[in-house]
Amino acid sequence: MIPGEYLPLMINVAREAGKDALRHHKHIETMEVSFKGQADLLCEADEAVEAAIFKRLQGTHPNFAFQGEEGGARGFPDADLIWLVDPIDGTTNFLSGLPFAISIALVKEKMPLAGVIYSPLEDEMFSGAIDCGATLNGEPIRVRNQTDPARFVVGTGLPLDRHAYAQGAYRRLHRIHEKVAAVRMMGSCALSLASVASGRLDGYFEGPTGFLDCAAGLVILTEAGGIVTDFWGGDDYADTMTFTSGAPACQAFLLQTTMSAPRGRV
User: Fold this and answer.
1) Percent of the chain residues past pLDDT 90, beyond the cut
2) What would the DSSP string read from start to end of 103-160?
3) pLDDT, tens digit, 9 for 90 and up, residues 224-265
4) Are 94 and 106 spatial neighbours (Cβ–Cβ below 8 Å)?
5) Which of 40, 117, 152, 210 could link 180 by a cystine bridge, Cβ 3.0 to 4.6 Å?
């Protein structure tokens, strides 16, 4: 199997899903919104866009499994290959008129093989697959070659709905922001990873978060020359989803800064 062979389908499905999302976006003032948890919004567009993505992907590959952010597991249950889909990564952004993303990853045994991230409001399509490189709207992208921490622009997300982890997150943020040029929170893990891959951010760290939210971004980032580890330098971030990522120099800086906590505590 060549992972890159699936990218044209994934790009097409993501672009069509973007059209679906923008149609819903015109009616955000009257859209029904509920809470899955504190600071975790759900709107009708999430479910509708995910259903459309499922229909398009399973219509082409009915023998694949499917895991969606909203609808859970569907498709062929014992498949080796699984689509991981976040139909609207950044629902709060979506409802506020800020950039959001459609994220689709093809995964085998917790390893992302191919991924696309589409920002409909900006019409930007990020894609990548193992041994195929990473692109933005078809043009190759690479991480930024910045080595001076004083010039790093670093992205992060804060666990607003997970109080048990908030103290550690703010401690890490405090240690990092004193040494870098700026810290940015984009409200979308997928777009943050895509921004590192395209050189707009030097690095990104978050934890804990969901593998489904990040899978597409992780393969795009690594194919763009980035590095990903958990907070302790290991490679089991797919289980813990506490990770540092970025261009090599920035990822090393983030790892050095975040690994001071005992292993297993984030």
Assistant:
1) 59
2) EEEEEETTEEEEEEEEETTTTEEEEEETTTEEEETTEE--------GGG-EEEE---T
3) 999 999 888 888 777 767 788 999 999 999 988 876 554 544
4) no
5) 152
| Stated pTM of the model | 0.90
pLDDT in tens, 153-163: 999 987 655 55
Calpha distance 177→113 (Å, rounded): 33
- Characterize the bridge pairing of strands 153-156 and 203-206: parallel
Distance between CA atoms of residues 46 and 35, nearest Å? 12
Q: What is the token pair recorded at 7? A: 């990218």
pLDDT at 41 over 50: no
Give the integer Cα–Cα distance in Å for 264 and 6. Answer: 36
Q: Which pLDDT does position 3 carry in this prediction? A: 86
* Cα–Cα distance, 42 to 179 (Å, whole number): 36
**Dihedral sign, Cα of residue 186, residue 52, residue 66, residue 225:** negative
State the DSSP string of 21-82.
HHHHHTTGGG--EEEEETTEEEEHHHHHHHHHHHHHHHHH-TTSEEEETTTEEEE-TT-SEE
Q: Report d(CA 110, CA 237) in Å as an integer.
A: 10
Whether the upstream peptide bond of residue 140 has omega within 30° of 0, thus cis, is no
Give the span between the Cα atoms of 265 and 179, in whole angstroms.
23
How many CB atoms within 10 Å of residue 131?
9
Q: Record the tokens describing residue 43, joined without a space.
A: 């709107």
Average pLDDT for the chain: 87
Whether pLDDT at 144 is above 90 = yes
- Rg, the chain, Cα only: 17
